Amino acid sequence: MMTAAQPIEFFLKDGRFDVNKLFLHYSKPLFYFALKFVDEEQAKDVVQDVFYKLWEDKSLSISGSLNGFLFTMTRNRCLQIIEKQKVRAKYADAVHFRMQEDELLFYSNEHSSLIEAELKEQLEKAIEELPEKCREVFILSRFQNKRNKDIAEELGISVKMVEKHITKALRYIRLSLGDYLPLFLLLQAYFIDQKSSDFFS
Amino acid sequence: MKEIEEIKSRYIRGEATESEAKILLEWLEKNPEERTAYYQEKDIWDSYAFVNNSQNYSSEEELLRLKRRIRFNTKTSFSMPRPLKVAALLLFAFLSGWLVQFLVSNHGTSDVVAEMREVVVPNGQIHQLFLADGSRIWLNSGSKLNVPSVFTGDERKVSLEGEAFFEIAKDPEHPFKVEVKGQTIEVLGTSFNVRAYPDADVVQTTLHTGKIKLHAGREIVDLSPGEQTQLHVNTGKIQVKNVNPVNYYSWRDGRYELKDECLTDVFRLVERWYDVSIKYDENDFKDMRFSVVLKRNKSVEHFLALLNLSIPIQYQINMDEIIIEKK
Questions:
Q1: B149 touches B114 (CB < 8 A)
Q2: Is residue A185 part of a domain?
């Protein structure tokens, strides 16, 4: 399991990026990041497009962190897809795309997703630290995909209470991860200056 | 206020209706200080999908998919194991025993990095090529096709000089367009033949299956199977005829059927087909029409003998040059 960004050398092979390692390391987090904004099939294609572009566009030059570069590319590709769907959508459906777009625009240099920050371990730990009832509800809702109504019945509490526990859990985790937020910047410390024409061997 | 908390929570879980999403969007616009906290909480919810690996996503499978895509668009040599495997950006395959040759540009270099590829088929040869999108194109002797190394954007566009038979893979999202002398052919998924040699006055488009839309100047013609358009390049006039399409693409199998064609045009086609040059006096054969079937396994003399049956001629063959005179 990864707890921090891997140093860039990890992906180097004979001075070039190793597509196998690069893809196997990054495709899954990028997929889950894209999944925030587009559907499953689209998210798979987005990841394909990002790596394809990396291979195809010989003029691409990466500055900054590789991690940040890949997530930015993914974000931009999702934005293109949402824009396209927004234009095609009927007025009534457009709100949804506008909302997705707004959320997507939130992820800029200032904010990154926890997926990008590779805070997997911290996220796991954060659940353990939740108050008992709150954790129970959160796990049933998030990991067992149970509906609030069913959780309420199972635990003998009101649906409103279930709602409250989930809201509380998210707030609690956000605050407990607060310490890590400055770390987001630190994670971009692995800088590279490599033309992607030297990309995959 | 209570209501918005509920909507926020419902949206995070993907249960919000359109009208609830609208309320939330307006609320976020009115309360920008809450925006960061809200999206961070949603991000926490979403990120657990990754932590928990809740989706059916296989990096290994996706990597294979990526490699396939890359391979389709880069293979430029002819070292592939099976000629008919759809495996390359352009794959030149054997056709009825003719030489496979990787074609280079006019300068004699293979332009691997170039965005546009020019495929040139010498006289006397036929080539078949596969495109990454699953389409197949047969190029007749003395033809030139410009095709991008990868189709990008909303349409798949190629340009042709000469004769080709197209078998285009269906992809309504990305219409296929063929640009030839004086006209553009718009295709959704179909097969058709185009003959548009630079030295001929007529551009002939014959539809075999499917549907195509032909744009020439201001005119637009929809073709149905079995129909053929003849665009007269000098006048811009378009004629539509009913034909047996088989006659117009049987050249792929080594049988070139020419029906009621201008004799001087026939000479040019013979030159390409057999890779010879024919010398004649323009005035001798002006305004004459001729029908003939050229066969790959028959020599050019066979053609000359057939011609002699309808129009008495005298001819002389010096290597690749043929001199024809009217008797």
A1: yes
A2: no
Which H, E and C letters describe chain A, residue by residue? CCCCCCCHHHHEECCEECHHHHHHHHHHHHHHHHCCCCCHHHHHHHHHHHHHHHHHCCCCEEEEEHHHHHHHHHHHHHHHHHHHHHHHCCHHHHHHHHHHHHHHHHCCCCCCCHHHHCCHHHHHHHHHCCCHHHHHHHHHHHCCCCCHHHHHHHHCCCHHHHHHHHHHHHHHHHHHHHHHCCHHHHHHHCEEEEEHHHCCC
Interface ipTM above 0.90: no
Instruction: Please name each of the domains of chain B with its CATH number.
Output: 2-51 (no CATH), 72-248 (2.60.120.1440), 254-326 (3.55.50.30)
Residues written for chain A: 201
CB contact under 8 A, A56 and B44: no
A-contacting residues in B 112-151 (Cβ below 8 Å) = 113, 150
What does the pLDDT look like over B116-132, one tens digit per residue?
Answer: 788 888 888 888 888 87
Task: Enter the DSSP assignment of B124.
Answer: T
Q: Within this chain, do residues A32 and A131 fall inside the same structural domain, yes or no?
A: no
The mean-pLDDT minimum among A156-170, B72-86, B147-161, B291-305 falls in B72-86
Assigned token pair, B224:
């149905």
Residue of chain B whose alpha carbon sits nearest to that of A117: B47
User: Which of chain A's residues have a Cβ under 8 Å away from the Cβ of B48?
Assistant: 123, 142-143
**Cβ–Cβ < 8 Å for B25, A154:** no
Q: How confident is the model over A28-61, as pLDDT tens digits?
A: 999 999 999 999 999 999 999 998 888 776 556 6
CB contact under 8 A, A123 and B44: yes
